[in-house]
Q: What sequence folds into this?
């Protein structure tokens, strides 16, 4: 059976989304939206003057997290997401902006709707877990 004939339930999310080119497109759109949309201004401000390093790190992380090559872990070891994000003030507003920006990027890059719903739920759970302040 060729990969193209597999049903989505038999594919990893990485395969379902379209592999590295689509993960890169998603990450690039996510960070482009931060620069373009006033609704994500606080999120953008938290990322410093340049987004290049963040783009690469999120791409590497998402490839492995979605079931593809584990580039992030190869480079940096275990992601330890909460620890790595502790220097940043993350409350409900920041969580919601991150998830909204990612959801918009998934919609604009053509992530299949059933996968988009699953990923949004997972992103929300992870983003909520990374909150380090109440508001």
A:
């Amino acid at each position: 059976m060729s990969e193209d004939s597999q049903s989505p339930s038999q594919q990893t999310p990485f395969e379902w989304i379209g592999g590295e080119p689509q993960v890169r497109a998603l990450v690039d759109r996510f960070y482009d939206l931060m620069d373009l949309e006033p609704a994500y201004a606080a999120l953008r401000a938290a990322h410093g003057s340049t987004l290049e390093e963040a783009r690469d790190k999120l791409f590497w992380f998402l490839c492995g997290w979605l079931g593809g090559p584990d580039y992030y872990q190869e480079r940096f070891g275990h992601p330890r997401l909460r620890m790595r994000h502790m220097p940043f003030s993350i409350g409900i507003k920041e969580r919601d902006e991150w998830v909204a920006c990612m959801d918009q990027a998934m919609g604009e890059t053509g992530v299949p709707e059933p996968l988009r719903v699953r990923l949004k739920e997972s992103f929300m759970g992870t983003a909520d877990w990374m909150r380090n302040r109440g508001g």
Q: What stands out?
A: The radius of gyration is 15 Å. Helices lie at 13-17, 19-36, 41-45, 52-65, 71-76, 81-85, 92-108, 113-129. The longest helix spans residues 19-36.
